[in-house]
């Protein structure tokens, strides 16, 4: 017996080209992305995509005939099982069998997915709707786990899926409505697809253009996970952020979140030349990255402020400074207004994951000198720099970290507290400065924090005693002898949306991470009129007994604490965060610090003039020169011939080949050559004199390419300076406007469809197409007015309409059925009937239907949906 067909060859070919092919492309992209995260898939995304495509193509061809899904699925399962047994028999060895079975299982899952997809495209009208919703939900989940919550990331991740969903639903319905006698098959498809693409493009561009600012505002509110590196974690805040190149940067803001993500990777290693009075015992210091002096109450975010008074933050870009040359800023020392118990301390920072442009150092840094990394350590350390700081003798990681009952540390702290007790008030502090650093919002929630501050410090007299009282409050115990406050990375969120998280932390759950303790301490102090600010960077933990003065900094040491201003002493670090034993008791770092760095006798900075890549020689201009640590500069650059045959060539991101250098590049060349060791400069010599007596060519050991700084566009500046909070009232208005627009569009959809069909019926010239559109428009108009054809044949339905409205619909219906199912041409009378039927018919129906009824019926979207979902 011959098996009947469900679809003709035109429809099957259209399904393959317009449904299966785009879905195959989407599957290939998804599988490529998934293969990047699951090693067991062995990065065979192309082969896996073919499995999906083969399943879809096979199902579309197979189900174009009248086969039942359940029966064929059972047979397919039997084939799978037979194949599985065969794989088990031919595989040799336990591991071979395992990987073969995994590969076979991947094939089964992907081929079956494609098969089900192909069946849905072929037989199910509603499959594309459920399929699109599934893809959209899956993409939302995937994006939340693997992407940064930014406007660009959200649009980039969701736009392709939304476009695909709209495309696949529209195209599937378009193909379903194709008739076997469809004229100009290719032109039919091209016209509709072109129109759809144009309309969808315009709609999407308009939506994203109109709401771009609101996307960015929502990004600012909800981008809690921009710093995470672990793609398996979702949500939460991070004290650092991962860049596109995989490096780590400190964030210029931190939001109070319901959870904190911490990584365990090594970020940098530092040698700090700071010791106690015995000159042997290391005195660790916290490393500062940013000062947060602004608080956005709407988003509950601590932010930097470039306009803060007496800005003492030094933020150079080490990657833009030639190696061995230094950048200094003495104004930051002046802005500290600190003269008591201060000294200059040196530090060397060796970066592993820390971004090339990042600069961290203890407060207050004023000097940055990039250093080369020796060959033996290049795999571990990407770049390095030397820092100098104007440091307070009163600062110490031992001093600011909560002693948690350690008697020796408490005694150590007390000697420093006694010095600060000399400050009784802030009468001598500039009023503008004091007003800025004691500002806090004036509402009931923050007044409640102020009341708590007064209660905590009621017995304290001096500012430092008030600080100690606040610290002791966080360390106190409840009536059951349990800690009143606890450290946790997951403090939760208040039950009421947009509730004040600091109040929730202080008065309800009393659990949080460093940003909560620092933020709460900030407002407790400001409520008492004590100038303070939140500082972010890295807490320093002295875990090494092998290399005193060396410190290892991991991601989970990114931290926030408070600095308090004391007249004469400047900003002093305080940390009220209760101990986090998971971080403090981390295992000892098992690493070797980069010791015995070579001394550079010559460092030249300039641009490449000539280049011989074969002999590894070059000529460069010299504008700045370091010779035996003497600095020479000139307005009339000289030249130097260099021999780079043994030189290491690097950029900010790693080593490159000498052959990658180009004329005009800005480079710094350093030489450790013994021939220069005893060639000391004379006091009267200038740069040109030094260049004349250097060896020709001069051997160099290090070449660093200085990347040019990219100009910041106005748009980028606006983005960098965009610290405005979310205007939720405006978001509400826009949301209501969007809902209203959608309601209008949906409400007018029946009328718009009618206008489209009505105009096609009136304007189409070809007799066959004209008959089709007239019949379609007449049927839609009657259906929308409430005269559905339910369970009636074409003739019976047309006769019923004629009896009610006194029309000639029955005769026209017979002509249309003849056109549709017969190959006989229309007679002259029938052609005249087609030409004269439509307009009088619509006028007759409209005349006999009240306007009120017509308006009400054309607002009924359900009727429209029912028309397109009823059997053809």
Automatic annotation (TrEMBL):
<dbReference type="Pfam" id="PF01841">
    <property type="entry name" value="Transglut_core"/>
</dbReference>
<feature type="transmembrane region" description="Helical">
    <location>
        <begin position="69"/>
        <end position="86"/>
    </location>
</feature>
<dbReference type="InterPro" id="IPR038765">
    <property type="entry name" value="Papain-like_cys_pep_sf"/>
</dbReference>
<feature type="transmembrane region" description="Helical">
    <location>
        <begin position="12"/>
        <end position="32"/>
    </location>
</feature>
<feature type="compositionally biased region" description="Polar residues">
    <location>
        <begin position="237"/>
        <end position="257"/>
    </location>
</feature>
<feature type="transmembrane region" description="Helical">
    <location>
        <begin position="126"/>
        <end position="143"/>
    </location>
</feature>
<keyword id="KW-0472">Membrane</keyword>
<keyword id="KW-0812">Transmembrane</keyword>
<protein>
    <submittedName>
        <fullName>Transglutaminase domain-containing protein</fullName>
    </submittedName>
</protein>
<feature type="transmembrane region" description="Helical">
    <location>
        <begin position="149"/>
        <end position="172"/>
    </location>
</feature>
<feature type="transmembrane region" description="Helical">
    <location>
        <begin position="44"/>
        <end position="62"/>
    </location>
</feature>
<feature type="transmembrane region" description="Helical">
    <location>
        <begin position="193"/>
        <end position="211"/>
    </location>
</feature>
<feature type="region of interest" description="Disordered">
    <location>
        <begin position="229"/>
        <end position="257"/>
    </location>
</feature>
<dbReference type="InterPro" id="IPR052901">
    <property type="entry name" value="Bact_TGase-like"/>
</dbReference>
<keyword id="KW-1133">Transmembrane helix</keyword>
<dbReference type="InterPro" id="IPR002931">
    <property type="entry name" value="Transglutaminase-like"/>
</dbReference>
<feature type="transmembrane region" description="Helical">
    <location>
        <begin position="98"/>
        <end position="119"/>
    </location>
</feature>
<feature type="domain" description="Transglutaminase-like">
    <location>
        <begin position="506"/>
        <end position="578"/>
    </location>
</feature>
<feature type="transmembrane region" description="Helical">
    <location>
        <begin position="731"/>
        <end position="754"/>
    </location>
</feature>
